[in-house]
UniProtKB/TrEMBL annotation:
Residues 1-203 form the CNNM transmembrane domain. This is HlyC/CorC family transporter. It comes from the Bacteria. The keyword Transferase does not apply. PANTHER family: HLYC_CORC FAMILY TRANSPORTER (PTHR43099:SF5), UPF0053 PROTEIN YRKA (PTHR43099). InterPro entries: CBS_dom (IPR000644), CBS_dom_sf (IPR046342), CNNM (IPR002550), FAD-bd_PCMH-like_sf (IPR036318), FAD-bd_PCMH_sub2 (IPR016169), Ion_transp-like_CBS (IPR044751), Transptr-assoc_dom (IPR005170), UPF0053_domain (IPR051676). One of its GO terms (cellular component) is plasma membrane. Keywords: CBS domain, Cell membrane, Membrane, Repeat, Transmembrane, Transmembrane helix. It is a multi-pass membrane protein. Residues 222-282, 289-346 form the CBS domain. GO terms for molecular function: flavin adenine dinucleotide binding. It is found in: Cell membrane.
Length: 446
């Protein structure tokens, strides 16, 4: 009867250890965003979990005290009672061992068995279950852990105080906080969610692009100066409206003398409103109706500019280079396209920046950004080698060292790029095919 009681007590202690181990993993692994959402819905259990998370030192110390005591009493019971019972059983087997040797063998067997049971049922199984159901399990264990923390407060206070003194002696912060999720961890979770079908590929791509937009400079997404459509300041409003129809744009920069002197932005709706209310105004210069332009440096982060344009209720910014000249322009649509892909409507001209050919090759506009090409071929930037250019055409010119002619090709990392057309001194269309890296020499060929 005494043996059965001892075994039941060992089982209870291992179960208590399992509860504490599962509680620790569940509380630490529970997503704080989900807990906050539950708390806002009125969940008192979620609020308790958040309180424990905000003071991890107290929570972890409480759990560690409980686990240590459970392990201590399990070992004590094994050493006092179970070893004696096992030694008696071994003695009945008439083994050629003395009493001390039988006791030693019994101690090894009991210790091995208890360690196995404690590790499997007291640690591994509960922790695995806790990882799989962290959020819900954290809600269930929060109240018992809080009560245990209150009961163990004197011991925890002594342990915490001693720990803080040691940390301060080494110049480390005394108060611990659970780390927030990092960008890399978030993207890994996003990838796992995509693999499991929790989010679609397009949704995952959009989130990843949002992170990349924070690191992308405006220079990489702007319309370059050579492609800008703009209006001379003294151009009549009537002709300006014709230019709006010809280009299909709803906003155009207005310049005085040359593009380095932008004086404002003319909106097509402003032009129509003026002409509608005063037909005689159609002969007046468009500078009178231009709105102030918003200027940004080319090194500005695209993510920051997106927020600024939204806050200013502005849809266009003029990009200035390091020498104070106009480098190009960027619109709200350009920035949004970095997130969701190309946006086309019935007024857009027929234009395909990247087009897959029947041969499996890709035809690319030279103005396409290098990162778009990398995404298309699922490559890393390092595979192209060092470069300064932002566009495919610029990369070809940089690698060749001269302006190419139509038909000239160059190997860039695993990509073979053939220039199909040139527009004056700018690369027009390019045929790109992925080849073995063994032949990647970076040399051009006619």
């Amino acid at each position: 009867m005494a043996l059965l009681t001892e075994l039941m007590l060992v089982a209870v202690l291992i179960g208590f250890n399992a509860f504490l181990a599962a509680s620790e993993i569940a509380i630490v692994s529970a997503r704080r965003s989900q807990l906050r959402a539950w708390a806002e819905e009125g969940s008192a259990a979620a609020e308790r979990v958040l309180r424990l998370v905000e003071d991890p030192a107290r929570m972890l110390s409480t759990i560690q005290v409980g686990i240590t005591l459970a392990g201590f009493f399990t070992s004590a019971i094994g050493a006092v009672t179970l070893v004696r019972v096992v030694a008696a059983g071994l003695s009945a087997l008439s083994l050629p061992l003395g009493e001390a040797q039988l006791t030693g063998l019994a101690l090894v067997l009991v210790t091995t068995a208890l360690s196995f049971l404690s590790i499997v049922f007291g640690e591994l199984v509960p922790k695995t279950v806790a990882v799989q159901h962290a959020g819900r399990l954290a809600l269930l264990v929060a109240r018992p852990i809080e009560l245990l923390a209150m009961l163990a407060h004197p011991v925890v206070a002594i342990l915490t105080g001693t720990t803080n003194l040691i940390l301060r002696a080494f110049g480390l912060p005394a108060r611990a906080t659970l780390p927030a999720i990092t960008r890399e961890e978030f993207l890994t979770l996003l990838e796992e969610a995509e693999d499991e079908g929790q989010v679609s590929a397009s949704e995952a791509d959009m989130v990843e692009e949002a992170f990349e937009l924070r690191e992308t400079v405006v220079r990489s997404v702007m319309v370059p100066r050579v492609d800008m459509e703009a209006l001379p300041a003294d151009l009549s409003l009537e002709v300006a409206i014709e230019r709006f129809f010809a280009t299909g744009f709803s906003r155009l920069p207005v310049y005085e003398g040359d593009l380095d002197h932008i004086v404002g932005i003319l909106h097509v709706k402003d032009a129509f409103r003026v002409v509608w209310s005063d037909p005689a105004a159609r002969s007046q210069p468009c500078r009178q109706f231009a709105r102030p332009a918003y200027f940004v440096p080319e090194t500005k982060r695209a993510g920051e500019l997106l927020e600024e344009l939204r806050a200013r209720h502005t849809r266009m910014a003029i990009v200035i280079d390091e020498f104070g000249g106009v480098a190009g322009l960027v619109t709200l649509e350009d920035l949004i396209e970095e997130l969701v892909g190309e946006i086309r409507d019935e007024f857009d001209r027929d234009y395909e920046p990247l087009r897959r050919l029947d041969s499996g090759e890709v035809e690319v506009d030279g103005r396409v950004g290098i990162y778009d090409l990398l995404d298309w071929f699922d490559l890393e930037e390092e595979e192209l080698g060092p470069h300064e250019a932002d566009s495919v055409g610029g990369l070809i010119v940089e690698r060749l060292g001269h302006f190419p002619e139509a038909g000239e090709s160059v190997q860039i990392g695993p990509l073979r790029c053939e220039v199909l057309t040139m527009e004056q001194r700018r690369v027009g269309r390019v045929r790109v095919v992925r080849v073995d890296e063994a032949g990647a020499g970076g040399e051009g060929s006619p």
